[in-house]
């Protein structure tokens, strides 16, 4: 019996990664599931893009120039507390008050594990949106 990974497709994702080769590999991976990917090569650029647009998921590295991934997450949480944020990093950083991401995936990652985690985060975000739509108010 095979287990099928729950996939969310066609989402708008802000991909933040300073290493061009890794960013391109992640973009290709995300495009396989028909996601629209907006790329940034550092946290400062990513925050400007985030403020100018709407994203279903932010996927960020930790170690980057100018603004690190945890600093980007802190800034995003100030303007969008419920924004799903996934950190993909080679470092062992866990979600905590200084790193307010929803989840962390270590590089190198298993693609099906990453898809499953993305689906969980996007599903939670969809539930929040349904609450907003049903009540007419933003929770939190």
Describe the 3D structure:
The chain contains four helices and five strands. The protein has helices spanning 20-31, 43-52, 69-79, 111-135, and strands at 12-16, 36-40, 57-60, 85-89, 103-106. Helix 2 (43-52) packs parallel to helix 3. It has one domain: Response regulator (Rossmann fold), CATH 3.40.50. Mean pLDDT is 85; it is low at 1-5 and 129-140. With 140 residues, it is α/β, with parallel strands linked by helices. The protein has a five-stranded parallel beta sheet with strand order 2-1-3-4-5, with helices on both faces. The longest helix is centred in the C-terminal third of the chain and has 25 residues, at 111-135. Helix 3 (69-79) links the parallel strand 3 (57-60) and strand 4 (85-89).
């Amino acid at each position: 019996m095979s287990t099928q990974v729950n996939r969310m497709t066609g989402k708008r994702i802000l991909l933040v990664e300073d290493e061009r080769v890794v960013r391109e590999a992640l973009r290709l991976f995300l495009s396989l599931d028909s996601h629209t990917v907006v790329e940034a090569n550092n946290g400062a650029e990513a925050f400007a893009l985030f403020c100018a647009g709407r994203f279903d998921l932010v996927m960020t590295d930790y170690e980057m120039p100018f603004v690190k991934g945890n600093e980007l997450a802190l800034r995003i949480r100030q303007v969008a507390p419920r924004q799903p944020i996934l950190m993909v990093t080679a470092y062992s950083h866990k979600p905590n008050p200084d790193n307010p991401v929803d989840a962390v995936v270590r590089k190198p990652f298993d693609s099906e594990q990453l898809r499953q985690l993305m689906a969980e985060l996007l599903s939670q975000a969809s539930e929040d949106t349904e609450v907003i739509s049903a009540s007419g108010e933003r929770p939190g």
